[in-house]
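We both want to read discrete structure tokens more fluently, so let's practise on a single case. Once you have written the record down, we can walk along the chain together.
***
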Amino acid sequence: MKKLIRELIPVLVMVALLVFFRSEVAITIFAVIIIAITFRMKHEKRELTLFLFGCAMGIIFELIGNYLLNQKWGEASFFTIPVWLPLTWGYGFVIIRRIGNIIVNTDKKFENQI
């Protein structure tokens, strides 16, 4: 359970940034700092590749939302989407994998606690 919480703390901080900051630049800078710190503290082989793939997919998904579904962002300086958004998509891919690995690889003792 501690591992799950430890992985979720940076995600919760990033969500809080959206509440407290309205500047696209400020959110982007803080997102880069949080992602860099988490990768510096812990990263597994090829997670950077997963992160970059998630960023690319985020750009594609957001552009589809913008052009096909008429989704709009107030501050958007990167192809009609905020710069921080693809970064959070990429980080989301990494965090989902990490949390999935924690859940799948836990022992029976942890399963009995849930």
